[in-house]
Amino acid sequence: LKQRILSHGSSKTAAEQCVTDVRALYQRWEEELDTANPVTYADLIWLLHYSNLTAEADKYAGWLRKLQRPNGTFKNVQYDISYTRGVGKIAEATAAVEATHDIAQKAFLFIRQMQYNDATLYHIPNALHHKFRHGFRHDVWNRDLWLDGSAHVLLAELRLLHFSSYKAHLQRCLSKYSAALKELG
């Protein structure tokens, strides 16, 4: 994004260019609405929110809420089965915006079921229990342990538990990023 802003050659500020790029991503999502993968566009919620595109953020959040099933997973036209990494990514993104914490919290209904604990390690050799315990299986059929899925879940949980400090840190980062781009431009 930084390179794109710097090479753009327009008179727009870095912040204005970022908002333009977020609007373009939102338009692409709208064009793909019937076939859009919620995992592919997961970060759009916080990009819209922190770009002050409130109406767009509300529409996108409404779309996510309609796709979310009672068990916390999301309807997805590309995959028949929900996988922990994808649900975790959506939880991570929606945990970044207070207005969508309900989506992230509901996603944890599914995520908790995918977490290995003493009761679900029966098929894992005892010598490997320490490697699997508290990790997340890929999905209901695939027992593989996926570390990147764990990363999304951890980030979501941290954002939910420490939202006010996360939000303050993110705002400081965005402010510094914008100031640095102004100096470079």
Features of the shown structure:
185 residues; 9 helices; 61% helix; globular
Provide the gyration radius in Å. Answer: 19 Å
Q: Order of SSEs, N→C?
A: HHHHHHHHH
Q: Which spans of ≥5 residues are poorly predicted at pLDDT below 50?
A: none
Category from helices, strands and their pairing? mainly alpha
Helix content: 55-70%
* Largest β-sheet summary: none
Q: Helical stretch count?
A: 9
Distance between the termini: 13 Å
State the total count of DSSP E strands.
0
The global form is: globular
How much of the residues is beta strand, in percent?
under 5%
- Average pLDDT level: 84
Would you write up a description of this structure?
This protein is mainly alpha-helical. Helices cover 61% and strands 0% of the residues. It has nine helices and no strands. The protein has helices at residues 2-8, 14-31, 44-50, 54-67, 84-94, 101-114, 129-132, 147-161, 163-184. Helix 3 (44-50) runs antiparallel to helix 4 and helix 5 packs parallel to helix 8 (147-161). The chain is globular and about 60 Å long. The model has no long low-confidence stretch (mean pLDDT 84).
